[in-house]
Amino acid sequence: MQIKPVPRGGGGTAAVGGVKAVGGYAGFVKAHFADVKKSLPAGSSQKEVMEALGRKYREEKESRAAEATTPRSGVEDLTRALDVVVLDD
Fold first, then answer.
1. What's the number of domains the chain is made of?
2. What b-and-e string marks burial along 12-36, b requiring 16 or more CB atoms within 10 Å of the CB?
3. Residue range of the domain that includes 63
């Protein structure tokens, strides 16, 4: 059994089932590559597909960032809910 250095693909970093979890841009590419390629004209190069994926990723990332920075109206929702509360005497 090899202990040092940690064998490639091992070392306890693998997710359930022995497959590493892919996140971030790599996960986005894996999930959207086929759809983006189908949406482009036939014969599109790998470069064109990756450019389209990059644009789509940036658009989605910006929209997620805009949603995250939009202030939630939690206080406003709470005050509206309290306006409707009826207290029994």
1. 1
2. eeeeeeeeeeeeeeeebbeebeeeb
3. 44-69
